[in-house]
Amino acid sequence: HFIDVSDRFFSWTGEVAGQRNPPGELGFGFGLDRTLTDDDAFGRINIEAEVSDSHAFVFNVSSSYRARDSFRLEIRGNGDERRVDSEPAEVLDLTSGLSHRSRWLEDAVENDLFVKGYLLRSEADETLGAINFSQPLQIENERLGVGDALVVRLSDTLRAAASYEFATRLPTANEILGDGALIAGNPALTPESSHNFNLSVSS
C-alpha cells in the first residue's frame, strides 16, 4: 500500500510552509493512494540417481510465480477521487537443469557436465511516459545454458578447479512489476546472458 496525498509542504524546522495543490509530492498532478495485492508461489524439485560409484545424474527444477491485482485512487485538489483499476499482472519463471557427475583416478578427478533450461513468461501493463498512459505487454522467453566444472586433486592439500558456464539471469518479479512505491517496474525486461570462466587453486 503506497500513499502520497500530502497537501502541505514543510520547512526544515518541521513547520508548515505552504499548501500543495494538487496534493502529492511525486508530481503526478494528483495525490496517489495505490493498493497492491500479490499472490506468490515457489517450488523446487531435486532428484539424484547414482548409476555407479563414479557416475551420477542430478535433475533439478525451480519455479516462482507472482500474480498481482492493483488499483489506485487519484485525489485531486478539490477533493474529488477517481479510481483506476489496473489489469491483472503475472510473472512466471522456471529454471531446470540436468547434470552428469563423474569421478576418476580414485576420486582424484571430478567432472560435472550440465545443461540448463530457462523460461520467463510475464504479462503486465507497460507505463509509457506517464502514470495514466499504459499498454499491455506480454513476454515469453526461453533460453538454454551449458557448462562444465572440473576439479583435480593435486595432492592431499592442494586442489585445482576450472569451470565454464553459458549462464542466464532471469529478471525478478519486482524488477518486472515494481513494488508500487520506490521500485518502478519494467515489463519489457528480458533475460540476461553471460559467458563465465573460473580458474582457482586452493589448499
Into which percent range does the helicity of residues fall? under 10%
Our measurement of the CA-to-CA distance between the termini, rounded to an integer number of angstroms, reads 51 Å
Estimated structural class:
mainly beta
**Envelope shape:** elongated
Give me some keywords for this one.
single chain, 203 residues, mainly beta, two-stranded antiparallel sheet, 1 helix, 2% helix, elongated
Question: Can you give a write-up of this model?
Answer:
With 203 residues, this protein is an all-beta fold. The protein has one helix at residues 173-177; strands spanning 2-4, 8-10, 16-19, 31-52, 55-75, 81-85, 89-104, 109-130, 133-153, 159-169, 192-202. The strands form two sheets. Strands 1, 4, 5, 6, 7, 8, 9, 10 and 11 form a nine-stranded antiparallel beta sheet that branches. Strands 2-3 form a two-stranded antiparallel ribbon. Strand 8 and strand 9 (133-153) form a beta hairpin. The protein is elongated and about 80 Å long.
Write the layout of secondary structure elements.
Blueprint: E1 2-4, E2 8-10, E3 16-19, E4 31-52, E5 55-75, E6 81-85, E7 89-104, E8 109-130, E9 133-153, E10 159-169, H1 173-177, E11 192-202
Antiparallel strand pairs: 1-4, 2-3, 4-5, 5-6, 5-7, 7-8, 8-9, 9-10, 10-11
Can you give me a brief rundown of this structure?
The protein is mainly β and 203 residues long.
